[in-house]
Amino acid sequence: MKTRNHHLNAFAAGVALAMGSLPVIAQPPVVNPVGTSVRAIMAVEKAATAPSFNRAEQTGLCLIESVVSLLAARTNDFGCAKRVYDLAVFTTDNDGVGQAEIAYGVNEGGTTLNATLSPTVSIGTRCKVNEAEGMNLLSGVPVVDYDGTHGWNRTNEIFYSNAKIDLRDPQTMSIINYSEAKIKDYYKQVLNGKAWEFGWGLEDINKFRNASSVTNTPDFYYPVQKWQDLSWYTHENGGEGQLNVRNFKMIPRSASACKIFVEVPEGGVFNGSGEFEATGTVTVGPNIVY
Question: Which domain covers residue 229, as residue numbers?
Fold first, then answer.
């Protein structure tokens, strides 16, 4: 039987070779509704160029993405009532450090995140982010721990984030454990004489659940939210720099009205002499106008 199958396979291969035919791939019974949009995204990225972020910008953008992920985790157990936070980010590439202050920062009713950028190696750059020592709060919710290990690929076209986020319930005083992961693409286009770095990606927020002897399940971080992320950034070079981030909650659908918008208006970005500064606001809330 094995010999017979071997001869049949060889015969079929010979016929295909003689006819110059190619394998026929069966078409799916329906068209994937997002297929056209995905192909459009791929076409835009392929026609664009790689971002030209310097180390100070890498640190600053890493901090801003960390701010967004921290606020996204907060919405899971504490809701999406509208809140507007002042945001200030300052970084330097002289020693690869930076800082983001939400609502005036640590010990002032807000939260401060510190970042350290690793030396650049042939494969990319790592960005480590932690909360500052002291009392960090987000609208009354204590931020116990933010432990982020993020990374850029060598051409700045891929940003990956991975964070552990612990918040304290101000009523029960219990710790709620989250984790976060995001992959984001960046690309550059020149529009109307300005160079823009655009970004888009997907983020998930996961929540920790202890092992259960009843269901025989192990400790695990279960996915609880999915967000879509869009961003726009233009350098200050001789003009007015600005930066915008738009995070849209997709899952759960019942909470999909929730959004997180970072607004750094024209003139709110400075980038020069090895420094990156961004001053603006972060708005969290339902049905924010896009």
Answer: 32-286
**pLDDT tens across the length of the chain (290 residues):** 444 555 545 544 554 444 456 778 888 899 999 999 999 999 999 999 999 999 999 999 999 999 999 999 999 999 999 999 999 999 998 888 999 999 999 999 999 999 999 999 999 999 999 999 999 999 999 999 999 999 999 999 999 999 999 999 999 999 999 999 999 999 999 998 889 999 999 999 999 999 987 888 899 999 999 999 999 999 877 668 999 999 999 999 999 999 999 999 999 999 888 899 999 999 999 989 87
> Is the residue at 80 inside a domain?
yes
Q: Which letter, b or e, does each residue of 146-176 get, where b requires 16 or more Cβ atoms within 10 Å of its Cβ?
A: bebebbbeeebbebbbebbbbbbeeeeeeeb
Residue 5 placed within a domain:
no
139's CB contacts (< 8 A; 6+ apart) are: 74, 78, 83, 103
Let me know if residue 271 belongs to a domain: yes
Domain count, the chain: 1
The answer to the question of residue 19 being in a domain is no
